[in-house]
Hints:
The complex is a heterotetramer, with two copies of chain A, one copy of chain C and one copy of chain D. Chain A is mainly α. Chain A has helices at residues 2-20, 27-52, 60-76, 81-106, 110-129, 141-148, 156-174, 176-186, 188-192, 198-224, 235-245, 257-276, 281-306, and strands at residues 134-135, 150-151, 154-155, 226-227. In chain A, the strands form two sheets. A two-stranded antiparallel ribbon of chain A has the order 1-4. In chain A, strands 2-3 form a two-stranded antiparallel ribbon. In chain A, a hairpin with a 2-residue loop joins strand 2 (150-151) and strand 3 (154-155). Chain C is an alpha/beta fold. Chain C is 34% helix and 25% strand. The longest helix of chain C has 16 residues, at 175-190. Chain D is an alpha/beta fold. Chain D has helices spanning 26-40, 54-66, 83-91, 116-130, 146-162, 178-191, 204-215, 229-237, 248-263, 274-277, 304-311; strands at residues 13-19, 43-49, 71-74, 95-99, 110-113, 135-141, 166-173, 195-200, 221-225, 242-246, 286-288, 291-294. The interface between A and B is large, with 50 and 50 residues. Bound molecules: adenosine-5'-triphosphate (2 copies) and magnesium ion (MG) (2 copies). One magnesium ion binds at residues 144, 294-295, 337, 422 of chain C. One adenosine-5'-triphosphate binds at residues 143-144, 146-147, 269-270, 288, 290-296, 337, 455 of chain C. Chains A, B: This is ABC transporter permease. Chains A, B: It is a multi-pass membrane protein.
Amino acid sequence: MRETGLIVIILALSVAMTFASPHFATWGNVRAMLMSFSVEGIVVVGMTVLLIVGGIDLSVGSVVCFSMVVSGAMFLMGVDPWTASLIGISVSALIGAAMGFFVTVVGLNHFITSLAAMVIVRGMSLIVTKGTPLSLFTLPPEFKAIGQGEFYGIPFVIIIFVAVVVMFDFLLRRATAFRKVFYTGSNEKAAQYSGIRTRQVKFWVTVLCSTLAGVAGVIYMSRFGAATPTFGVGMELNIIAAAVIGGASLNGGSGTIFGAILGMALLSVVSSSLILLDVSVYWQDMIKGCILLGAVSIDHFLHSKKR
Amino acid sequence: MRETGLIVIILALSVAMTFASPHFATWGNVRAMLMSFSVEGIVVVGMTVLLIVGGIDLSVGSVVCFSMVVSGAMFLMGVDPWTASLIGISVSALIGAAMGFFVTVVGLNHFITSLAAMVIVRGMSLIVTKGTPLSLFTLPPEFKAIGQGEFYGIPFVIIIFVAVVVMFDFLLRRATAFRKVFYTGSNEKAAQYSGIRTRQVKFWVTVLCSTLAGVAGVIYMSRFGAATPTFGVGMELNIIAAAVIGGASLNGGSGTIFGAILGMALLSVVSSSLILLDVSVYWQDMIKGCILLGAVSIDHFLHSKKR
Amino acid sequence: MSTDPVLQMRGVSKQFGAIHALTEVDFSLERGEIHALCGENGAGKSTLMNIAAGILQPTSGEILLDGAVTTISSPATAQKLGIGLVHQEIALCQDASVAENIFMAATNARRSPLMNYATLNRNAQKVMNLLAPIPVRRRVTELSISNQQLVEIAKALTLDCRVLIFDEPTAALTETETQALFQIIRVLKARSISIIYISHRMAEIFALCDRVTVFRDGRHMSTDKVSDMTPDLVVRRMVGREISQIYPPKLEGEPGKTLLSVEGLSDGERFADISFDLKAGEILGLGGLIGAGRTEIALGLCGLRPVTSGKVVLNGEPVSIRDYPSAVRKGLVYLSEDRKASGVFLDMSIAANISVLDLKQVTSGILLDRKKEADQARALTQKMGVRMGGIDDAVSSLSGGNQQKVAIAKQMSVNPRIIIMDEPTRGIDVGAKTEIHKLLRELAKSGVGVIVISSELPELIGVCDRVVVIREGRVAGELSGAMTEEAVIRLASGVTNTGDLAHVA
Amino acid sequence: QTENPFKCQPGEKYVMNVMVSGVEYWFPVYEMFKQAGQQFGCETAYTGTPEYDVTKQIASFDQALAQNPAGILVHPMNSDPFVEPINRAVDQGVAVVTFAADSPNSKRTSFITSDNLAEGTYAADAVAEAMDGKGEYAVLENPGQDNHDKRVAAFIARMEAKWPDMKLVGRAASNQDPAKAYQAVLSLIQANPDLGAVFMPEANSAIGAAQASKENGGKVRVMLADVNENILDMIKAGDIFGSVNPNQGMQGYMGFMLLWMAAHPELIDPMNDYARSGDNAMAVPFVDNGFSIVTAENADDFYWDDYLKRRGTKGIEE
Ligand SMILES: Nc1ncnc2c1ncn2[C@@H]1O[C@H](COP(=O)(O)OP(=O)(O)OP(=O)(O)O)[C@@H](O)[C@H]1O
Ligand SMILES: Nc1ncnc2c1ncn2[C@@H]1O[C@H](COP(=O)(O)OP(=O)(O)OP(=O)(O)O)[C@@H](O)[C@H]1O
Ligand SMILES: [Mg+2]
Ligand SMILES: [Mg+2]
């Protein structure tokens, strides 16, 4: 299994870190790491499915932000926060549908479509917010609980994240509908010749990815109690990197949710370790990049050995 | 030809703009547009060749910056600027070689390799500069002339840009060595079966892309008389977008230099028009994205009609 | 001149993981001979040839060229040593022109820094015309799979080699092209170039080759002069038992009611005014030359390609088939001739490949039932005799013929009312071919409508009860009863030296 | 009685040019720039690129220049890259004044800014005093952005010089990203359970930092530079300790004044060498526009929307 290599590397890093810093292997720190990638992890799920079908979505950062902004603005206009969130998520789904339209009906590729969407949707956030963060200080506590609350000491965010990951990992492995995603990504023409409506598959996967980004946006809003128009700039690269480290291919046809989440975890462990070790900010980037490259190389090595 | 569609669209936009704003069709404005993409255009050339071979390079922005920084630091250490530039370009080529190594020998994909390189090389710029821009005010005028000088009223930068584009466009269409790039990108196995050493091809194309980024860095240094450690952040997306708009495919096997430059020109005309028309900043991004999407759709339509 | 064989392979073994593709194989090729290589699907023929061409490295064993031990480390090395290979699987650069593909190796070897397209195109056209007049400026992606096969062959002809290997070059070629190819091979032989020829068609081997080597289960069985052998003997060595190479009995008596009736089908481009009927119990053949438009007609019928006019009546009901999924729902399925591009999912498991056409069968609720899927795959692969490691292996790990069997198994997994098979036995060995023919006959008997497109004339005539011949996108005529190859060719090519034959339509 | 010289000719236009033009920091600056312009009877325009890209900003600067305005108040994203464009503008007779970031090697006439070093210093004092001069602190950075680096450096320098018992325990790059800031502060708190304060030189990171602090009991004082509505709310609620905020309004107003003056050097008859050297006689090299420390007590006075409403203007949209 592709994932074992990553698990080995993450464990190795963690063991090393446990010796290097007494703070690493504490619940507080693990919780901190989990919290830091839980919400992005939801976006990673959608991106992985999209990568499997052979697509890519550069607009996720913008959509996360726009979902935040729309829900926030609705709330400020007096809509109750739950309805506001639903509207935010629906709008995100609509953006996905629009992209799906351009990809499947007009025939553009995912890269350019989502690049344009990234710019357009970011622009829409600017229009709505007029460039200033919306202060959502008055969000009711029961809504803030999504992002900030806990259940027997485990943050809701982590629970939601785990639920989403487990569910989609299961569905992706077992559900018939998601098998079609693999067929389409593996060989679109053969899928068509097997009676699969590949356009529909691509359309819905595009919608799914944006919708999950929208969900992430709402959770972020609940966590930060704010909607910042610059939120999520550059997020897409991180997300795609996680999925690719986890075994997704940019050419479609392969990838797993679990792997992608491990990819995200690896990135997070590295970042967190650099801070725990108090590495100079000037050196952090370089060291992070080197560890990333090393980890991926080792993983590749472990992986190709087994074949 | 793919390019005709883009030419039509760019011309149409330009004509419309000439009527909409008296400032559009002035030499000052045209010069500003050309200047704004000339140096990036050199990077686009390398990226296009790399896309054709089926690769991608997310590190170009970092490499442009590092080339600047290394040349600048060398100059400040007393090396003459020409030698310093050569060193900067060589270092860029070396970075390309390192990426080429990871891609062809270790077997990682271009995406993840260049993503790691992006982070590492950016980090190296931070280390060299300690985060502060290097002031290269003392660069001799004959060196500054590269970036700031003119020849009969035409900036050298534009001349260099045109020369590089024309040369590589010609080579890519006609040179045997560059045909191998197409073959490799189109079907790597088939190319191998014909005796083409596809790894070598991929290696050298990776080096070429970084080297051209290095050249761009040196020109930027000359033009700006400075080396800023944050220069070029996010540049890669713009560059890849230009190439993809111009007909390059992320799956390799297709693309032209001329098309990619037209893609760049389209992006530039759009940005420039929005500023000239004094469109509200809140709306600029959205409108820009919409025009981009519209233009690409029209181009796609014109293109697929002809088949 | 030495008397050593040009190419000799001694004790060559090759393992892919647990699979022993070749075990201690010996093979030797004499100067100027045409040496046939036979064996069932998965016997290891392609593997051995890939080793000779530097694409694969043997696990053990040695290769001798002119008696000297040599390592062939890459295709580039093989080329330098003068070994050329026409691949079983088409390996062309789809985005490049035919001419560029044909001369790719030469371009690679040439020192001149710039391309000379004029000369390139001129020379490429010359080579191409030996086989078929395909315009060489076309991009490969615009060509049908059979034309691509011809390009693949043309490509090998430009190599300057001493040993030329053809791995099932005629699998999708019609008689005409096959004859053209034989002509060329004989000329090459006269230039004392040594040739290895792999085919599942016994007739070709006996018409062309000097010696024949038989492989079974990755082992060398025998090498003999062709003149000392009979087709039955070769087949027995391949399979290890007697196989009746005869076609299953044809339909006796009158066919049943009309299952499918096509009237005036046109796509405004490649075919026009196509009409025919398909009746229960019969197998209908579509014949014609390469490029006649048979594939396009089938695609049009199934909604895989837009049509402009025409009427399709299915079981007495007029139907409009908008796209392929609706065709499948109506019980109309199509087996693609282009296995690699549209027939199989190379990176996916055998089981997933077989279940794809009707996922409902292996679904309970919204989830896949892995067990059902596995059972289905096991049953069908066994029925088709797929040689494989296990049903979870990727299809890419199978030999060409076994991939084709998987593609057919996929069609068999559903219970279609009409099944259209485009070159169904492409690359399939003798034994399995007979099985498939039997299967088609059983399907027909059980009331399923069967249409077979085949470029292999004996098969077309042997299997089908009735053959509609297509010429340049139109129905040129129809044959039934005692059909002859000659009659089909005459209709297909429009050559009318016997006067009235052309007016049958 | 001579005519009042302090007014514009018809069509006399002054332009403000920035990068990341959709971001709130510029709005008060432009608002006051515009107000000053109106008082002078001048036209004003807000230009720039929405992107964080120096090449694009230079292109927008060049475009503004191509329309031949009387003056440009520019925030050069990087200093030296703007030397050539600024000099070209000045040579063309267009006055140039820089604000908030400088291009000292260029021929710009004046530079107006708040003192980043003073901001860092005052922020340090405010934090240290609140902690009785004793405890651990960390900083979030945005390495490479000059004014941010200055604030951080001054903050740390002041702590080291004046507050020997304040210990710097961690530095992390958050690069103006709330999510990264959130992660960084969570990690910093894990590594340093006694962390008492964290400083960051801009507002974006503060949202994430404040949330991280809150989730860990709110013991970490979040100190930053710049404000916006959200930050102000959080300051009032006590989630954020405080902020140093440059006086943007004065930056814009005085920026206009300096620019207008630079465009009208003919108003004075210099008694020095300016006439001979050809330099602009109206040169005032540097003006400090000042800053405020924003805390829960005075936060109410900094709401931008309230100001716009009170003034009845449309901000950058006019
Ligand atoms: N890449 C691979 N990985 C695993 N097994 C392989 C691979 N390639 C070939 N094999 C196995 O090696 C055996 C020999 O295959 P080969 O392609 O040589 O057969 P072949 O004689 O050419 O058959 P065919 O007539 O079907 O082309 C088969 O069992 C096949 O499954
Ligand atoms: N749009 C087109 N315009 C011109 N020629 C075309 C077009 N599409 C296909 N062809 C040509 O048609 C031929 C393929 O037709 P088709 O595949 O229908 O033939 P076929 O009778 O099925 O024969 P084959 O055995 O080759 O499949 C090729 O020569 C191909 O180049
Ligand atoms: Mg084979
Ligand atoms: Mg066909």
